[in-house]
Amino acid sequence: MPTFSYSAFKADGSPVSGVLEADNMQIARQELKKSGLYPRELSEVRRSAEGKVKSFFSKGVALPELSLMTRRLSTLLGSSVPVYEAIATLYEQEAPGELREVLGRVRSRLAEGANLARALAEDSAVFSESYVSMVAAGEASGALDSILDKLADFLEEQEAVRSRILTSLAYPALMVVVGTAVMLFLLAFVIPKIIVIFEQNKATLPLITILLIKASTLLRKGWWLLAAAGIGIVYAYRRLIKREDLRLRRDILLLRMPLLGPLLSKLILSRFAKILGLLLASGVPVIKAMEITGEVVVNRHYRKVLQGVREELAEGGSLSTSLRSCGLFPPMLVHMVAVGEKGGTLEEMLTKAGSAFEKEFVASVTRFMSLLEPLMVLAMGVVVGTVVVAVLLPIFQLNQLVR
Prior knowledge:
Layout: E1 3-9, E2 15-21, H1 25-34, E3 38-44, H2 49-57, H3 63-78, H4 83-93, H5 98-111, H6 116-121, H7 129-141, H8 144-201, H9 207-221, H10 223-240, H11 244-256, H12 260-281, H13 286-296, H14 300-314, H15 319-326, H16 331-343, H17 346-402
Antiparallel strand pairs: 1-2, 1-3
Helix pairs in contact: 3-4, 3-8, 4-5, 7-8, 8-9, 8-12, 8-17, 9-17, 11-12, 12-13, 12-17, 13-14, 14-15, 15-16, 16-17
């Protein structure tokens, strides 16, 4: 929908300016008049190349910002503040940035008569389909503040897991960067100076030294070829990965990898159970909740299986039976879903299962990283030791020849 920038006068003659969305210029003028404004200037905001560049490099709305905004909105609505005034208050209090711009657009849509769910859905890059669906269910049930509070809890938990993963990866990533930098320095600057000594003596070099010299020569003289090959591989991967069948094969391969596969499975199961439980607790129908959850799960293998589960549910099947038959979901989750279906506490059991898988995932990541760190130190020692041996062996041979 086009966006129009306007400057107008209020009924008392005071100037006002802003932006609004409308299908065309005429409707935009009508909307301003309905709001009691007399337009002085009205023009369509066109997306310039500079705007595209800004959008490309924009960081977007971070998860902590979104969770904090959701918590504040829940508090305001719980205090009987109308939705429009709550969004307007958040907009005025927010510091300049991407979230403030989003809140400004949401406020404009609310002023035009849209409900909160519809106003949020227009910014799909910030508010996911699950977020919008829970807001819509909260508006329909009259419990929007409590649902937003649960949603804020969920977003904070997701951010906590993400922070733990990034913290665990910080040291290994630093080791990889430092180790790579040391090896490049040795191959590009140190080894070439030593090669000159070997060439002058014309001695027979060990195989390990010959391989090291060839690697150094390739890096110094063929760096552009290596860079071009790397760029070509990345470009080809991005082109090929757009095909849905290749994405499916990649996701299946990731799940079958020895160490990474179980970690990904636990993370996917945790996200599936928590989002589905939260949607059901918010009053979203089970078929719609399964559809949204299937889209949120990024792994296409799980997404394909969940599509089949949703079709079985539409035909009258039970969720536990469908999950058991597909073979991707562990017995514990299936059992908890079955208990929840029988006792009428499905959303509660799903939430507990999601928390259990999340704890298992965090514990597995912690164990994996504690094992990875000494292995990386050992690997760096082996690489550096190999370079030292490749350099010292010919020197020892030269000393023997001199004697």
